[in-house]
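USER:
Working in pairs, take the chain set out below, taking as long as you need, and write a paragraph about the fold.
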Amino acid sequence: MGPHKIRQMLKSEREMARRRFRRQKNRNLLAEPGIHDCIIVLDHLKPTYNIGKIFRSAEAFGAREIHLVGIDFFDPAPGMGAFKHVPARFHRDFYPCYTGLADRGYTLFTLEPGTGTPVTEAELPEKSAFVFGHEEYGISFEPDLFPRVQRLTIPQFGKSQSLNVSVAASIILYEYVRQHA
């Protein structure tokens, strides 16, 4: 298969994902907040499989809502219908997301490999918001400029020191629920 054919296929898949997103976005308007007072913030993630999977985990663990920063669409298919159950809030950049959550009393946490307090040693406040950055580039902002942002890390013992973002979100949601259930 040549490069032109591959580009055509990827463009077609992306357009199908956009259509799925547009169809399901209206259903999301009826989504009810989850039973736990934790929020997931997705900062400029790729619009492929991870976002849908994070919606699926957020629904399973009862997260209140998901904030999407710099993401205008994503493929909801990997979420297995969870997009219609977890309220989504869309932001162009991080600042309005941050101020809105801080005004509501949330403590925000970034998750970066090897940086911050190990999540296994942290006491997570009832109102916690967990920020996950782009799969390759990380978060889009300088955390030191935002006083309510704290750093967490998931202890890892292998050589890669990296987890898939949807796996990391699931681990954090599990730890939050373990501490607050």
Q: What stands out?
A: The chain has one domain: 3-180. The beta strands are 38-43, 65-69, 88-91, 107-111, 117-118, 128-133, 149-153. Residues 3-180 form a domain with the Alpha/beta knot fold (CATH 3.40.1280.10).
